[in-house]
Amino acid sequence: MKLPHEFYQLPYRFDVPKLIEEISQFTEDDWVTHHEGFQGNSAIPLISVNGEFNNDFKGPMKPTAALEKSPYIKQILASFGEVLSRSRLMRLAPGAQVPLHSDINYHWYKRVRVHIPITTTEQVQFYCHDKQVHMGAGECWIFDSWKYHKVENNSDQYRVHLVIDLAGSSAFWRTIFNHSRAIVAPQTPPLACSSIDYQPEAQPEIITEQYNASIIMPVAEVEYLTNELLAEVKHNPQNPAAEIDAFNLLIAEFVADWRMLWLQFECQQQGWPQYHALREHTMKKAMQQVPSLQLTHSGSAVKAFEQLVIVACINIELSQTRQSPPHQTTQAKPRPTPQSQPQPSVMEPSATATPQQEIAAPPTRNSPCPCGSGKRYKACHGKMS
């Protein structure tokens, strides 16, 4: 998420010995290597799609078995009082690094990553744009993930952070901007923090995201996201004026044509091929017409357009997981009508119906495409040129 400053320390402190005790229960087999193969990077999912050990972003988020075995970590998650998304323990091996990158996909555009260091040393440094900090054990931090950032572990010890993805309520952002510490200079005054201690008898409930992607992205969101990208492209003085104009026209045409499809089909299946053809055509034009456009501190504008809008605007794999509202178990008593008029029929709920249908896991990229083409999802509506 874009933030006014690169780093913010939040006014909380956590019990490091208790956190170390809880993560010590996990064996080497519990740590999953990074999905992009970053050397020395591994994680244990705590909240994930359907509570499974995956790296997915879309679908109902649920606690994993690892979180259920970690009562203090669960209390920490609940203490924020927020709707939580992907959360995990993230480990960085001695001498390893998180390579320089920016988080330009849809998931992170309106979510921050809350970092709570558990094991670390002064030799672990976090870089974001032109700032760097050491996040101390038991502290609480967020940062501007839209800008280029990296982490270096120049020590001989493992670094482990508890990392929580969330969008944040108004109360959360009041805390950030009114009570947190923005790192704007090397010598920033220390922050007064509240201690979040372990409560042995507490049984907290956590709230997790259930709807984090649209089957077909609404026009208003497509327009908002593309306008955000266009504004940043215009703000970068190094971008060629001709390419900015071409990007402006490309976006205007994409939004107009998306609106026409939405007015015809909304999320109905018969519109999926047209939506897919439009985004594929638009992406090809972007790569041909505006290849050199750059965001201010985040890299390629075309790559951001692909990850933030084009990839995210169709999620038809979720059509198999979305259920209609459950049947009501009671019916309103009909108003009496004259005997000469026919009574309206009332659909009774099935005797075997349950209040909440079981939600199936979304298909993988190798599963058959939900459109019925017979192709794998990654080769059909999940394919990006």
UniProtKB/TrEMBL annotation:
Q: Name one Pfam family in it.
A: SEC-C
Which residues lie within the region annotated Disordered? Answer: 321-385
Q: Where are the transmembrane segments?
A: none
Annotated Basic residues bias: 375-385
Positions of the Aspartyl/asparaginy/proline hydroxylase domain: 64-166
Compositionally skewed regions (Polar residues) per UniProt: 321-332
Superkingdom per UniProt? Bacteria
Read off the InterPro entries from this record: Asp/Arg/Pro-Hydrxlase (IPR007803), IPNS-like_sf (IPR027443), SEC_C_motif (IPR004027)
Q: What is this protein called?
A: Aspartyl/asparaginyl beta-hydroxylase domain-containing protein
The organism encoding this protein is Shewanella algicola
